[in-house]
Predict the 3D structure of the following.
Amino acid sequence: MSNLLGLGDPQAQFKVYLANRPAFSFAHGQSEIIALQQGEITAVGQACANGWRKVFNVYAKLMFALSGESTIAMQQNEFVDWQTYRDQRLLQQNSNTALLFSDYKSTLSQNDVLHIVMGRTYAKSLHLPTSIQWLDKEFAVDLKHKLIVCPYFDYRQLSNIKIIRLVELIVQLQRNKGG
């Protein structure tokens, strides 16, 4: 994990990558991947503008929608709704979720890790592997590296309908790679 920067579970099998990071001072430092504490998602949303609240909400909606569909153990079955999941598990220790602000390439060789790159513009700046296949203007899949490019985690860009499509792509990718 040496040069990775992000929020969430350092051992996560579900890693989401984005270009920017919140301008927020976490009480427990900002080196490597740090697990959030309960209440920090709310604090970041309040301190860093509405965009971060949307990122966390869409991430929670996606994970909640994956409940029962994915072979990655995300443990959200115990939560009654995505809001409770967001507040009590997302990006915390043992959540199996991470939000990374550094290049995905150092983690591509990890087995059983699913990589989601948020946003076409950011994805194009990363020099994606040649094995990536663009399905349309918004989604791309790389079966070899278990990598998916999807719209940015915002209500308009990754709407509920597109979250369902992303869930379908994740399930398909895991089936093709054997879980």
Summary: The chain has a mean pLDDT of 84. The two ends are 23 Å apart (CA to CA). The longest helix spans residues 160-177. The first strand starts at residue 6 and ends at 8.
